[in-house]
Amino acid sequence: MSLLVLFTSRMLSVSGRVGRRAAPGLSPLLTPTSPGLTRVLAVGKKDLTNFPILNEDELEEQFVRGSGPGGQATNKTSNCVVLKHIPTGIVVKCHQTRSVDINRKRAREIMREKLDVEYKGELSEIIVKKKESVLRKQEKRRKVNEKLERKRLFKETLTEDS
Asked: Is the same domain home to 56 and 36?
């Protein structure tokens, strides 16, 4: 069970479940900060927290029918979320689950990641973590190749001695 805490200038709600609403008509991930301005809180991304805050006034949201396997559940329900960030023109489409609320949350997470890359470029947390991952893989591969080379040389010396 995860604990969701919503903050603005003062604490609004503490909910024991993610599905419970903080206020009527508000998603648990959306918190009012001032009239007409809503921001999204990141939930679950502890190591990647410096993403830009989404301004709901800058987002255009549509619900469309998804595509792919799923039959009637996919073909007759509009649970695919399409988010467009108006200032940058970035479009995100999310149809990972059958739940519109979960798709809305995931679309906003993806949008925050894309905006982070857009604004910070090479200094983005995502790009830095990917580079670190690539370097770790290269180092691991180098060590494996060295070990294989030592084994090959050891076998050669054994065959020469006998």
From this structure: yes
